[in-house]
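Protein Record: Sequence and Backbone Structure Tokens
======================================================
Tokens: labelled as protein backbone structure tokens, with as many entries as the chain has residues.
Question of interest: how does this chain fold, as expressed in backbone structure tokens?

___
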Amino acid sequence: MAIDPASTAYMLLCTALVQLMTPGLAFFYGGLVTDTSVLTMMMQSFVSMGVASIIWYTVGFSLCFGESVGFFGNPATYFGMMGVNVNEPLMREGKVFIDYIPGLLFVAYQGMFAVITPALMTGAFADRFRFKPYLLFLSIWLLVVYAPWCHWVWGGGWLAEWGVWDFAGGIVVHITAGFSALASLLVVGKRPADAKDLDAPHNVPFVALGTALLWFGWFGFNGGSALASSSTAVAAAVNSEIAG
């Protein structure tokens, strides 16, 4: 199938909008914590943009959308962006896997989901995680939790074969992040006993700015999940405004 210029332009915009959500999340969480935790909280979101991107473009995308090897995606299918073309749709096993947009654009768009998903968990990590252990956790989590679930649901894995359909990340993003955050807290335990005023936001304007950026980004997050400039994208974008 030929590349559709309208869908390509639309998905480029949606990719940028979803990228904007991670800085928005940094401001949102940064404003909610105490002034002593704001830098750590914001850096946990921003560092995900770098670490997750490196993992994604080397092996992460292939683990998510490569050919199925048992329950998992084949890390060799698209390792280092091998077989991903900027002028053609994404191909897998000799067939078109994603239509209308360049394969590299699909990689970039899905990469924004991989960036923000671990960052969503950081709201539960306030005053609990040090920065270096968080970097290790982020890297391992993307490989052993996010990648399998993404492949099972979006990459044609066993859940997709059973008919499970996740339009914009309700399972792959939000459920995995939510349950992983809960499981992590069961391991690291409660915040320090001497911590005070943890429920008082330190900067309400930061929270408002983060909310605005996240809301703006939702139009790319949900609308872009149609992967084309189509009536489905319009419905998703309008519903994002109504639900927001």
